[in-house]
């Protein structure tokens, strides 16, 4: 019985620590060097435009929980660029239509 509890605890621990973003973008020298996951075409296009204006090196991970997006940036992404990338997301408040 103890081994079943240990296996269950190990599985729960592995699920919690497993990093599973919806999309991951890697930027190098002002270009999108690679991307993985389900990347929206418009978001990718906006990211390329933003990176051309403000070149940087770093990664952006986008997580989805229900209808909201959560974004994690590496330390190489400047703060002003972080704000513009967040507003470029398809589910952000800047892209919502007003009634």
From TrEMBL:
Superkingdom: Bacteria
Chain positions covered by the region annotation Disordered: 79-99
InterPro entries on file: DUF3634
Protein name: DUF3634 domain-containing protein
């Amino acid at each position: 019985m103890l081994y079943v509890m240990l296996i269950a605890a190990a599985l729960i621990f592995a699920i919690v620590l497993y990093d599973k973003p919806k999309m991951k973008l890697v930027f190098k020298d002002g270009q999108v060097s690679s991307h993985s996951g389900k990347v929206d075409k418009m978001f990718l296009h906006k990211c390329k435009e933003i990176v051309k204006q403000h070149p940087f090196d770093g990664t952006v991970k986008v997580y989805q929980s229900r209808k909201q997006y959560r974004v994690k940036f590496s330390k190489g992404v400047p703060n002003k660029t972080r704000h513009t990338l967040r507003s470029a997301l398809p589910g952000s408040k800047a892209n919502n239509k007003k009634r």
